[in-house]
Structures are given as C-alpha cells and as structure tokens.
Amino acid sequence: MNSPKKYNNLGSYLRKALLYISKPIISNPLWFIFVYIWGAVCNTFVVWNGSRLVGYMQLFLELYLLTAIITIFPNKIRQAVKISLSILLCPISIIDLFCYCKLKMPITATLLNTFLQTDASEATEALGSYTTIDETTYPAIILLILIIFATATALNKRARDFVNDITRKAEAVIGVFTTMALAVALYFAAGNEVYLFHKLILGKSEKEIYETMQREPNVRLYTPAHRFVNALTEYRQEKNTIASLLSTIEKSTVEECAFTSPEIVLIIGESYSRLHSQLYGYDKPTTPYQAQLAKENNFVVYDNFIAQWNLTYDVFKNLLSTHCANDSGEWHQYPLFTTLFKNAGYNVTFISNQFITSSDTYSDFQENILLNDTRMSKAQFDSRNDKRFDYDGEMLDEYKGIGDSKKKGNLTIIHLMGQHIAFGERYPKEWEHFTAAMYPHLPEDEANIVAQYDNATLYNDYVLSRIIEEFKEKDAIIIHMSDHGERSGIRGNGYGRDFTLSSESIEEQYEVPFWIFMTKEYVKKHPAIAEEIADSRSKPLCTDNIAHLMLSLAGIKTPYYNARYNPLSADFDSTQHRLIWERFDYDKKNE
User: Which of 123, 140, 146, 470 has the maximal Cβ count within 10 Å?
Assistant: First the structure.
C-alpha cells in the first residue's frame, strides 16, 4: 500500500519540475508576454508561406528557448540583453510591417539590395512618397502603439511589481501551461526549426534544404527578425554573383546581327508536365488548340526536350545564360542572351505574371536579383510589366501589343503563371471542364487535384492560342517551353515538387513540352530555317540549348555563341550531357 509520504514526495518532485520548466517565463514575465504579442501581431498581418497557427506555436517555442538562455545570465546582464534585443527588434519590426503595407514586400534581400543601390537623396524622396497615413498603414500603427505601451509598462515600477506578483501566485498554472505548450509546439514546429537552422545558420538554398529535409516546412520566415537575418544572409551570398553578372554586361559583345528573324517570341510556361498534353499522347482533351495546330507543317512538336531543374530560378539562370553544363566556369560568368539581343539592336520585352518591376514576389530573392536588380533589368530589357494578374489571360488583355517597336527586330519573352501550384487557382471558374469523376482509377482527393491540373492545362491552351493569334499575321517565330514540370497526382505519388530522381519524378518534373510555331509569312521568307526546325524535332535537347538557338534565329554573331548547342546547326552535338541539377545525366537514367 502506497504511503501518503510517497505521494507527497511525488507531488513535490512534480511541482519542482513544473517550476523549473516555467522558470524562464516566471523570471521574465513582462518581457516574454510583450515579445510574444509582438511576434504574433507580425505573424498575423504579414502574409507568408505557411500556417499562422503553426507560426504562433513556433514563436512560443523559439521565444521560450531564447528566454531560457537569457535567464542563465546574472540579473544586470539579463536586463541589458533584453533591452538591447528590444531596441533592435522594435525598429526592424515597424519598418518590416510598414514596407509590407506600402510595398507589399517586407524586409528582404531584394529590398535591402535596392536600398543599397539608392543614394541618400533618392532614398529620402522615395521614403517621402510613402509616408502618408492611410488604411494600409494600420498594422504598422497598431504595432507602434503596442511597442509604446510595452515600453511605458516596463518603465513603470508598479506595473512591473503587479505582473511579477501575479506570476508568482500562478507558478503552478504557468508550469502546466508551459509544459503543454512546449509539447504541442515541438510536435508541430520542430521540423521548421531544422529548416531555419539550414536557412539562417548554414545559409543553404531552398533546393539544398529540400534535398536534406525531403519535406516542406509548415512556416518559413514568419517574423521580422527571421526576415532581417535572411536578408543579410542572402545579400552576402549573392553579392559576388551580382558583381559577376554585372561584369558580364561589359563582356556582352556583338560583332554583327543579321536580324534573320525579325519577330521572335519565347513563351515560358510554368509547372507544365507533358504527361498532361494531347501533343504527347494524353487521353484527355487538354490542348485542343495545339492539337489542331499540330496538323500543320509550320508547328513542330519536339519529343526529346527536358528541363534541367525543377525550381524556377535555377531554370532561368540556366536558360538565359550562354553557359552550358558542359562548359567550364559558372553560369554568371557568361553573358545572358537577353543582353546580347539588346546590344544587337533588338527591342527586348519581358512580360511575366510572376516577376514584375514593382515586385511583390518577396520570397524569390534569387529570381529578383537575376531579373529585377535595376542594373541587370536595364541591361536586358527595354520594356517590363509592373503588375501581376489572377489569370494569364488577363495579363494578355493588359499588355496587348507591348512588344511593338520601330527597331529592326523584336524579342518578346512571355513568362506565364501556367499550372503553378495551387492548380485550382490558375483558371477562371468557367474553365472548369474536368471533374474528379473523370478519373475513376484514382482516389477522390487525388482525382480532384488531377482534374484541377487538367483544367489549368486547358486554360493554358487558350492562353497560348491568344499569343499565337497576336503574331499570326507577322513574320514571326514562336518558341514554347515550360520551366519545369510538376507532380500532379496522376502517378499516385503525390503532387508538387520533390528532389528524388525516381523514374516517375523525372518523367513528371523534367520532361516538359517544347514546340516551335512559324507563321506562314515566316516559312515563306525563311524556308531553310523552317526545314532545319522540322529536322531537329527528335534531337536530344534541354534548357542549355535555348540561348544558342535564340542567337542562331536572330543571326547574332558573338564569341559566346556555340554551334554545338544549337539544334539547327550541322555542328550540333547530340552526345552532350543533359545534366539534371548539374550532376545527374538524364540520358543514363535507365542504366
């Protein structure tokens, strides 16, 4: 029979354990409360990738660990640390929230890079234009009021004593709550802490983190502190790349240009796997317009083209640079074909439903450095769009005829949102043709996802038809490719992207549509090129080839053109290594 003494001892040990666990909060109650409210307000107002609820849990976990570390120090040092952190966090938070309200971009490396490119007078003028107080600034005002109230409370001895007294009386309750909250936070947010360690401490890229974790975090950079540290980390990492890219501008020499193709259009799709295209044997009518075009000789469908990455930034740098995976050096040490086109005298237009000049794609720092760094953008493009749209068709309505110019040649690059996840948001409701019932071999949830992807593909077919109709009467050539594919659930192995290189993942994520359309006028004026294109439809091609194909079509003579990578050239090297992630040879996947 258990004695009362034994129960008393057990209760005493439990009480001590709870008090020990809750000590960081009990020792710093006022600071803990206000810092948590600060983080929760920021997490609530700034829309970020991930769950706000998980963000609240992760904030509790991280703040508890930080407070536990602070508690180790003697009281005077502890107070100094808390004051220092508060002085650092308050202005960063207000600036972060204000920038998000006004610019739709919190503190990021892109914003930091832009600020560092701006002189004092320009910065003052720019800030002056955003200092008006209106409904968009309410979140920043709320945060400022909270900070003022917290400061006033902390300076008031009676308020401090009142909070400390309540905390001491509720030690047991706080201990129980802290223990339960930590258990829940660890369950939901521990994986996110691994992500933040790789991102902020080790400085790894998203791709490298995905390869390590093999999973998406529930939240990413959910507070101004995380975003500020990330901005500094990424800016430092990219500084040398930016310098190298800028130096390529000076090397982008063009010896002569024949303007062989006066109107060149490059359409870059998004997340488009050819498994869902009628052109490649899909049994659903997802591409009726393209299927009709395929009956004509001036529409050439390539059957052996791959994307070499499944992340947009990596594809873009690979696509725009004249560097190839088989070359020495790094991609940023070679000129971009867009710069070569502009230097040759082409009018270069870039229309994107993802990356825009007043960009709100604040999580895509690397893409912004390549495309939106002021100097890099000016060196590549004559015209850009400055806003995004819910649907690609709306973008075409707004920017109809934007590529027209009085120059001898026009290069128009159109970057679509395409079938980017989430698939159901990529098309208007009237384009909802496919339903889950049409996929009886799949579970209902997977069938819904596949149906949404097919609807997005059908709408994309309409968008492509709009672009072709825009140029159909001109002496124009239109090239279409996708940056990468996407797992859509059709293989029963999930949806989205992963970094495994199984045969199913390669088929879904790297084997993408590629075709070339030539107007009747183009075929009439350039019969030799039309014949070369028809003869190249089965050559082993990849995103490395695009820059050299484009230079060939324009008749641009430059030291950076390499006929080995041009599928229209007699010198094309069919044995070139088509490397996925610069290390996996696609053509050896079955060995």
Answer: 140
Look at residue 8 in the predicted model and tell me its pLDDT. Answer: 57
Alpha-carbon distance 40 to 332, whole Å? 40
Burial class (CB in 10 A: 0-12, 13-18, 19+), 317: buried
- Predicted confidence at residue 126, as pLDDT, reads 47
**Whether the Cβ atoms of residue 477 and residue 302 lie closer than 8 Å to each other:** no
Nearest to 103 by CA among 137, 76, 72: 137
CB-CB contact of 104 with 62 (8 Å): no
Burial 381-402 (b: 16+ CB within 10 A, else e): bbbbbeebeebbbebbeebeeb
Between strands 409-415 and 346-352, the pairing is: parallel
Between the alpha carbon of residue 298 and those of residues 261, 271, 305, 476, 542, the distances in Å are: 15, 26, 19, 11, 21
The beta-strand segments (E) located in 358-418 are 383-384, 409-415
571: amino acid identity, one letter = D
Is-contact 194 37, C-beta < 8 A?
no
User: 0.90 exceeded by the pTM?
Assistant: no
Domains and their CATH numbers in the chain: 20-232 (no CATH), 256-588 (3.40.720.10)
Q: What is the DSSP string of 437-473?
A: GG-TTS-HHHHHHHHHHHHHHHHHHHHHHHHHHHHTT
Could you give the CA distance from residue 478 to residue 265 in angstroms, rounded to a whole number? 5
Residue whose C-alpha is closest to residue 330's, from 266, 243, 206, 270: 243
Determine the Cα–Cα distance for residues 287 and 428; give it in Å rounded to an integer: 17
One-letter amino acid for residue 248 of the chain: T
**pLDDT tens digits, residue range 138-156?**
677 777 887 888 778 877 8
Question: How far apart, in whole angstroms, are the C-alpha atoms of residue 192 and residue 186?
Answer: 10
The token pair that represents 558 in the structure block:
């430059």
State residue 428 phi and psi, 5-degree precision: -65, 155
d(CA 310, CA 305): 14
How many CB atoms lie under 10 A from the CB of residue 181? 16
Hey, CA dihedral for 15, 20, 21, 26, is it positive or negative?
Answer: positive
3-state secondary structure 165-224: HHHHHCHHHHHHHHHHHHHHHHHHHHHHHHHHHHHHHCCCCHHHHHHHHCCCCCECCCCH
When computed from its CA atoms, the radius of gyration of the chain, rounded to whole angstroms, is: 28
Q: For residues 438 and 448, what is the distance between their CA atoms, to the nearest angstrom? A: 10
Residue keyed to tokens 């570390």: 69
Distance CA 493, CA 508 (A): 10
Q: Please give the pLDDT value at position 489.
A: 80
- Residue 346 structure tokens: 């082409």
Counting as low any pLDDT under 70, the low residues of the chain are: 1-11, 47-50, 102-105, 109-111, 113-138, 207, 357-369, 401-404, 493, 590-591
User: What is the per-residue pLDDT for 286?
Assistant: 97
